[in-house]
Amino acid sequence: MGKSNLRKSNHIMKKTLTAVAVLGALSGATLAADVTLYGVIDTGFTYQHTEGGDDSFAMTSGSYAGPRFGFKGTEALGDNLTLGFILEAGFNSDTGVQGEDGKIFNRESQIYLTDDWGTLGFGRVGGFSSGMSSLSWYWDFEPFETGYVDAGIQASQVNVWNVHSNTIYYVSPTYAGAKLGVQYSLTNEEDQEDARWVNNSKWLNVALRWDGVNTKVIGAVEAEFYGDNADTKNFEDAYSFKLAATWTPGGAATTLYAGMNYITNYRRISDANWNDFDIDGLAESSDGYDAISGFLGVRYTVGAANWLAQVQYQDGEFEGAASGQDGDFKRYAVGLGCHYYFSNRTMGYAVVSWAKGEGWLNKEENITNRTAASLGLVHYF
Questions:
Q1: Distance between CA atoms of residues 325 and 276, nearest Å
Q2: C-alpha of 281 from chain center
Q3: CA–CA dist 368, 249 (Å, integer)
Q4: pTM for the complete prediction?
Q5: How many other C-beta atoms are found inside a 10 Å radius of the C-beta of residue 195?
Q6: Which residues are CB-contacts of 44 (< 8 A; sequence separation ≥ 6)?
Q7: Tens digits of per-residue pLDDT, 319-342?
Q8: Which candidate, 107, 104, 123, places its Cα nearest to that of 3?
Q9: Phi, psi dihedrals of residue 27, rounded to the nearest 5°
Q10: Which helix (DSSP H) or strand (DSSP E) does residue 181 occupy?
Q11: Which residues, in sequence order, are CB contacts of 176 under 8 Å at separation 6+?
């Protein structure tokens, strides 16, 4: 699961190399000397007990931060104009397997221009209101930073780890602690554009974030506009609204978190961590899934340890199934854990979570009604 590359980037992910040392052996190209190699390794163990299913214990990768390596660099073009790029590849640190078949730089692949007027970029990036890629503005608004099985907010929200290809984005300059971001994907979840523009599904994300002295606030809307093809032409457009805030009293060791997510007409739940209801029914329905979820969290710092806790609740309704089977759905999740920082670059984690869904379920085994425990190490380079 993804984390923002901005996390601790000023002091834990910098190792600037010369062009020949970084990519010369890979491409044979002559590159600017400010190309940077960075990455994350996260390996641990996870135990899960699933209601109605079997217990499992496995070595796992990316419980907290998705393992990755990447290259980024900039070139000054003059008159305050700078060109930059980011190429980031995900992998499983317990096996070495590529994170997504068919994509080398599956986590991020973008080029951008930045100046006094802001930043304009193009490529494959994560959403502002997600926990993925260098553009994530959302990961630090909850104590588990969108990690672990059901401890992070993926236990009750959608689009927490989403990445979109063929995206155009703009980020404004920061004024009085506030910045605005707009993203538009020409293909939504697909990688390839359709021959006919109207057949493409599109995706929009608009987010506003404000960072004060002791308080941070973010508000965002995401929209999925379905294309005019045989599979999606009768779908109503889906919307997700997110609002979250953090507060750290001056000089205090405690940070408080709160937030909510309202979704309407949703059919794709792949970027969440719950899927207990009838996905086929959603796809066939004239309407989608509507729900509101909320969370409250806390982080308490004692020396090198951060103690974490969070509770989540979702209340939703599904209507319009072709079979006529409608109903309510509720989900509860609780997470407890500890992050221990051995250094600025190395962290150990121990996290437990519990989650349960109630209402209209379509599976013989409720695979997301579960208890989970994760133990592992994360290293940034």
A1: 15
A2: 26
A3: 36
A4: 0.87
A5: 7
A6: 59, 60, 63, 349, 374, 375, 376, 377
A7: 766 655 567 889 999 999 999 999
A8: 107
A9: -120, -15
A10: strand 178-185
A11: none
Farthest CA pair distance, the chain = 63
Q: Which two tokens stand for residue 368?
A: 């997301």
Among all chains, which residue has been given the structure tokens 């190309």? 35
Which residues 6+ apart lie within 8 Å of 32 measured at CB? 19, 73, 74, 75
Instruction: Compute how many other C-beta atoms are within 10 angstroms of the C-beta atom of residue 237.
Output: 14
What type of residue sits at position 47?
A: Y
Q: Which of the 8 DSSP states describes residue 91? A: B
Look-up of token digits 């951060």: 306
Residue 271 pLDDT greater than 80, yes or no: no
Structure tokens at 75: 């070139």
| DSSP string covering 64-75 | SS--EEEEEEEE
Q: What is the pLDDT of residues 24-53, one digit of tens each?
A: 444 444 444 589 999 999 999 999 998 877
Q: Using alpha carbons only, what angle is made at residue 151 by residues 147 and 154, rounded to the nearest 5 degrees?
A: 65
**Cα(250)–Cα(248) distance, integer angstroms:** 6
What amino acid is encoded at 225 in this protein?
A: F
Query: What element of type H or E holds 261?
Result: strand 254-266
- Cβ neighbours of residue 380 under 8 Å, at least 6 residues apart? 8, 12, 13, 38, 39, 40, 345, 346
